[in-house]
Design brief:
With about 475 residues, the chain is α/β, with parallel strands linked by helices. It is built from 15 helices and 20 strands. Bound molecules: adenosine-5'-diphosphate. It comes from Dichotomicrobium thermohalophilum.
């Protein structure tokens, strides 16, 4: 265990301002298999208690001045910043991402707290010209009540702050469930929230093992006190939560799987495209929902692009998160590794060629070699499913129309990227892509300042930016009459 600050390791859940529960579920380092700590295995009853606490805390929190909530969030942001190094080490240990990436995520995750601390003061209403002389129309925005958040392991900190910060800023209270693989970062965040002065019951964190997640989710989606479910994770679970939430007509905000196309046109700056592909494909060992999943390269530059990309990929250092200069860590678990292997095997069987990598890494465990496949076609599994691993499949195309049609040929619609130096094409393709986010000559698009989210089966709603605030408020129309 490298330099994990024990002061931030909590082995209990945080409910109603108390640390509670028996540590029982082991949390391990995916690079070594070492047990780092244990956390409680909460179920429906404990989740209900957390929801009750959040419900009880709601009126007082909602009644606070926006500025008061803003100041508490700002203190939380300052504390996260002050502890960024410990948080990054903790995250790398339980998740496996290289320290440089973990530091980046702490900064990214903290930025949502800072941004929404500021936005808390700007939840403006509206007046609308009245249809009658003796009446006025007003629109105000109010918090909804208890928000439930369920978050994934690939961004153990940022996926929490992206939901919790706007929820709290607008006066809601929250019960959050982190992924069983990465609860330690989540609980460390709770400790800092407590220190920042978030009142008891306003923010609660419940943990469980893999199986327990369903029981917590079922309580969150069926309990009538919960008014909204915010979820980031797989499309399968997102659909299930949406179905379950229908029983009490809860609002749902879903960030689900992607199948991002990364298109390189003949007129692109190839070095820039290679740098973008490296960042977009191999970040977090290919385990982000906006990672390039299909790299579509125009015929005229296909071989040149493949060669340039291979040169960079072969230079990548693979290893434990804490080793210097490591650019790629292990995959999160055995299941993830098996999926990557299956996708590569299926592609090779159907005619793809391995340009580099293509097998488990000699480091063992869940390490996989950074891989490039060429001659990839739409019949292969990795064209239609999210691989979530360090595999770059290169598809060949001939025309702009073909590239757009291929890119859109998926039920997913989260992020898309393309490289071109033609201004007209930049507009045509941006508008033609059926995706919620588009990077033009850019491979990394996440920022707290912009609306993150997808279309089609990639989700509902947007997180981040001033639009992210709207997800957490109810609009109320008031007609004042007899004036
Ligand atoms: P992944 O396949 O990337 O692990 P999941 O959608 O399974 O994505 O996990 C995302 C989050 O959803 C995690 O916190 C996980 O524990 C949780 N989860 C998984 N199954 C359920 C379920 N049936 N109900 C509620 N939450 C669930």
């Amino acid at each position: 265990m490298d330099q994990i600050a024990q002061s931030l390791v909590r082995q209990q859940c945080y409910v109603n301002g108390e640390w509670t529960g028996q540590p029982s579920v082991p949390v391990t380092d995916p690079a070594t298999g070492d047990e780092l700590a244990r956390v409680p295995n909460f179920g429906a009853a404990e989740t209900k208690a957390a929801i009750d606490a959040a419900h009880a805390a709601f009126p007082e929190w909602a009644a606070k001045l926006a500025k008061e909530r803003s100041q508490i969030l700002r203190r939380w942001f300052d504390l996260v910043q002050a502890h960024s190094e410990e948080l990054a080490h903790l995250m790398s240990a339980e998740q496996g991402k290289p320290l440089t990436e973990a530091r980046g995520e702490v900064a990214y995750g903290a930025s949502f707290i800072e941004f929404f601390a500021e936005e808390a003061k700007r939840v403006y209403g509206e007046t609308i010209p009245s249809p009658r002389a003796d009446a006025r129309i007003l629109v105000i925005k109010q918090p909804m009540g208890v928000v439930a958040a369920i978050t994934p392991w690939n961004f153990p900190l940022a996926m929490i702050t992206r939901k919790v910060a706007p929820a709290l800023a607008t006066g809601n209270t929250v019960v959050c469930k982190p992924a069983p693989d990465t609860p330690l970062t989540a609980l460390a965040l709770m400790q800092l929230a407590e220190e920042a002065g978030v009142p008891a019951g306003v923010l609660n964190m419940v943990t469980s093992d893999m199986e327990g997640a369903a029981a917590i989710g079922a309580e969150m989606t069926s309990n009538p006190l919960v008014r909204m479910i915010g979820f980031t994770g797989s499309t399968r679970v997102g659909k299930l939560l949406m179905e379950q939430a229908a029983g009490t007509v809860k609002k749902v905000a879903l960030e689900l799987g992607g199948n991002a196309p990364f298109i390189v046109f003949d007129d692109a700056d190839l070095d820039r495209a290679v740098a973008g592909a490296m960042a977009s494909k191999y970040r977090n060992t290919g385990q982000t929902c906006v990672c390039a999943n299909r790299i579509l390269v125009q015929d005229g530059v296909y071989d040149q692009f493949a060669a340039k990309l291979a040169e960079k990929v072969r230079e990548m250092k693979v290893g434990r998160a804490t080793e210097a200069e490591v650019m790629q860590g292990p995959l999160i678990n055995e299941k993830a590794l098996e999926k990557v292997e299956a996708h590569v095997a299926d592609a090779v069987e159907k005619g793809a060629k391995v340009l580099t990598g293509g097998k488990r890494h000699s480091l063992g465990r869940t390490f996989y070699e950074p891989t490039i496949l060429t001659d990839v076609t739409s019949e292969m599994r990795l064209a239609n499913e999210e691989t979530f691993g360090p595999v770059a499949p290169l598809f060949r195309f001939h025309t702009e129309e073909e590239a757009i049609a291929t890119a859109n040929d998926t039920p997913s619609g989260l992020a898309a990227y393309f490289y071109t130096n033609d201004l007209g094409r930049a507009w045509r393709v941006s508008e033609g892509l059926e995706f919620g986010m588009v990077g033009v000559n850019e491979g990394v698009i996440s920022t707290e300042l912009a609306p993150f989210g997808g279309v089609k089966e990639s989700g509902l709603g947007r997180e981040g930016s001033h639009h992210g605030i709207e997800e957490f408020v109810e609009m109320k129309y008031i007609m004042m009459s007899g004036l």
